[in-house]
């Protein structure tokens, strides 16, 4: 199990060892969504997940 800190509320987030780059994870405390940016040597780098906006055919 790897750990990272939430960029919003600084809570510890546990990330499974089988996580893959591009996977979306959520903070258990504030619910912020993050994307796994990179993995290596037992460390994980996260970035704020881009929110997908609805396209109503505009």
Which helices and strands, and how do they pair?
Elements: E1 2-5, E2 12-15, E3 24-26, E4 33-40, E5 43-48
Antiparallel strand pairs: 1-2, 3-4, 4-5
Overview of the molecule:
There is one protein chain. The chain has a three-stranded antiparallel β-sheet, with no helix packed on it. Strands 1-2 form a two-stranded antiparallel ribbon. The protein has a single domain (2-48), classed as Rubrerythrin, domain 2. The radius of gyration is 13 Å and the shape is globular. Helices cover 0% and strands 43% of the residues. The chain has strands spanning 2-5, 12-15, 24-26, 33-40, 43-48. The chain is mainly beta and 58 residues long.
Weakly predicted, low-confidence segments: none
Secondary-structure element order, N to C: EEEEE
Q: Give me the count of strands.
A: 5
Round the Cα radius of gyration to an integer and report it: 13 Å
Q: Estimate nothing, just give the exact number of structural domains.
A: 1
CATH topology: Rubrerythrin, domain 2
The largest pleated sheet is described as: 3 strands, antiparallel
Report the structural category. Answer: mainly beta
Q: Walk across the major sheet and give the strand order.
A: 3-4-5
Q: Which band does the percent of strand residues land in? A: 35-45%
Name of the top-level CATH class: Mainly Beta
Distance between the termini: 43 Å
At CATH level 2, the architecture is Single Sheet
Shape: globular
Number of helices: 0
Would you tell me the overall average pLDDT?
89
The amount of helix comes to under 10%
């Amino acid at each position: 199990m790897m750990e990272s800190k939430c960029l919003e509320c600084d809570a510890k987030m546990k990330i499974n060892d089988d996580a893959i780059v591009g996977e979306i994870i959520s903070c258990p405390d504030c619910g912020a969504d993050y994307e796994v940016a990179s993995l290596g040597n037992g460390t994980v780098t996260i970035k704020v997940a881009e929110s997908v906006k609805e396209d109503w055919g505009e």
